[in-house]
Design a protein that fits this description.
Length: 188
């Protein structure tokens, strides 16, 4: 059964106190913590994750034209697999893999920075996926806050990444609670 999961993006947290920030979010009711490791090849402004990405790419580049093999390889290790879809990437490109993966992430901003405005057009992809895959975890990330969560939840997303919308809210616990309720209402 699908669940509402609110995942504060640690990109908006105090990096010097990540353990405390993580505990604070857990105490505020977060279901997951979202940590970005973005590939500088696709998100050119970021270099923070470069060593991790270099290591990952050493093992995964050979699979770039064989995504199904890469999904199987990751699953064989016992890990879960998700695919992120950037705003200019069509939803059709991931449909063949939706039954094999644990989650699809629909980016609602161009990845790289927190604090951008959500691109509502991207929610059309969420609607398409939800109509085809009622039990798929569909995550959204970028510009989501308490002012637009109803729209996001109505499109069918159940895993919500929010950086500014949680860390920048006067009460992160309240923001998480509002987002959780909005998603749960739409899951029923
Ligand atoms: O992936 C991201 C940006 O690429 C991050 O998750 C980002 O933190 C989202 O932040 P906000 O909720 O402020 O838009």
């Amino acid at each position: 059964m699908l669940k509402a999961k609110i995942a504060p993006s640690m990109l908006s947290s105090d990096f010097a106190a990540l353990a405390d920030e993580s505990k604070r979010m857990k105490d505020c009711g977060a279901h997951l913590l979202h940590m970005d490791v973005m590939d500088g090849h696709f998100v050119p402004n970021l270099t923070l994750g470069a060593p991790i990405i270099k290591c990952l790419r050493k093992h995964t580049d050979m699979f770039l034209d064989k995504p199904a093999d890469l999904i199987a390889l990751i699953k064989a290790t016992g890990m879960k697999v998700g695919i992120a879809v950037k705003p200019k990437t069509s939803v059709e490109s991931v449909i063949p893999f939706c039954k094999a993966v644990d989650m699809i992430l629909i980016m609602t901003v161009e990845p790289g920075f927190g604090g951008q405005k959500m691109m509502p057009d991207c929610l059309e992809k969420v609607k398409v996926l939800r109509s085809k895959f009622p039990q798929l975890d569909i995550q959204v990330d970028g510009g989501i806050d308490v002012s637009n969560i109803e729209q996001v939840a109505a499109a069918g997303a159940n895993v919500i990444v929010a950086g500014t919308g949680v860390f920048g809210h006067k009460s992160p616990a309240e923001a998480i609670s509002i987002m959780t309720k909005a998603v749960e209402k739409n899951l029923k």
